[in-house]
Amino acid sequence: MYDLIIVGAGVAGMTASVYASRYKINHLIFGETPGGQGMEALQVENYPGYVSIPGPELMQKFVEQVKSYGVEIKQEKVGGLAKIKGGFEVKTDKDLPAGKAGKYQAKTLILAMGASFRHLNTPGEDKFIGRGVSYCTTCDIPLFRDKIVAIVGGGDSAVTGAIHASSFAKKVFIIHRRDEYRAEPTWIEKMRKVDKIEEVLSNEVKEIKGGEKVEEIILANPYQGNQSLKVDGVFIEVGQVPSFALAKQLGIELDERNYVKVNPGMATNVSGVFAAGDLAAIQGGLLFRQFVTATSDGARAAASVYQYLHKGAMPAPSWGGKS
């Protein structure tokens, strides 16, 4: 039986692994795609220590650090979690010979399966991911300085994304399928004071077109006499879907948006189970999804595992090889 199994090999999961290794916690980490959503980031320009770095390159550095401690990242899909005497059982979907099922046991779990971006499922969307289509305005808008972009959505992330985008882009269209936003009124008021932002309400993006990169979007309804808008980028800010299915198998409490409820120590309502990253929602805290917050979550989750395994003892600070 391992001390810990980490389910998810994105930023939060791999950070948790690094800290678990430094705390000498015997553990495994599962992740079908090491790096998770970080592999889809064209350029990362808001992670400390790097002015700009491609997402896949940054994720490879995470993987290398995890493996430097001798930890194996098992690229197997976890299909089931169960409570057993003294801990938990993790079942994978990997095809194995009879009698050798993919079953692993651990005293504790860190769930870091993340969340997936909601897609528009419109023609051209998948084709232009990383070539003009993005799901994170905060991450990628610096790449569109003095360009024309469209933000799709009507919630806080879309409205605040439009405000942020206006600091870089020449022009920003915000496209929402309804005639009213779901965002906080304060944000809407601030957005409407920005001359660069143009609202396209009661409309939808029906197609994204271009050559090597995004060049235009086709609208469901004409806007100012035109069925299309010339844009250089499309930021889809229509929310995320947390990967909560495995958490429900253990009876872990979810919030109204299906994020896993955690306390500031990343503990769930099930003793011995912790959550981190995009899957987790700290009760009373801001839902802010960035690499830097995922690393914080992962580090705290690992520290809490150490405390749990050592009956409340705090892990010793560890900044370097000699600490």
Written account of the structure:
By secondary structure, the protein is α/β, with parallel strands linked by helices. The chain folds into 2 domains: 2-116 and 240-309, 3-Layer(bba) Sandwich (FAD/NAD(P)-binding domain); 119-236, 3-Layer(bba) Sandwich (FAD/NAD(P)-binding domain). Helices cover 22% and strands 28% of the residues. It has 7 helices and 19 strands. It has helices at residues 11-22, 55-68, 137-140, 156-165, 185-191, 245-249, 291-309; strands at 2-7, 27-30, 73-74, 78-84, 87-92, 103-111, 115-117, 133-134, 148-152, 171-176, 197-201, 205-210, 214-223, 226-230, 233-236, 240-242, 260-262, 273-275, 280-282. Strands 1, 2, 3, 4, 5, 6 and 18 form a 7-stranded mixed β-sheet that branches. The protein has a 5-stranded parallel β-sheet with strand order 8-15-9-10-11, covered by helices on one side. Helix 5 (185-191) links the parallel strand 10 and strand 11 (197-201). Helix 1 packs parallel to helix 2 (55-68) and helix 4 packs parallel to helix 5. The radius of gyration is 21 Å and the shape is elongated. The model has no long low-confidence stretch (mean pLDDT 90).
Question: Which labels suit this protein?
Answer:
single chain, 323 residues, alpha/beta, FAD/NAD(P)-binding domain, 7-stranded mixed sheet, 5-stranded parallel sheet, 19 strands, elongated
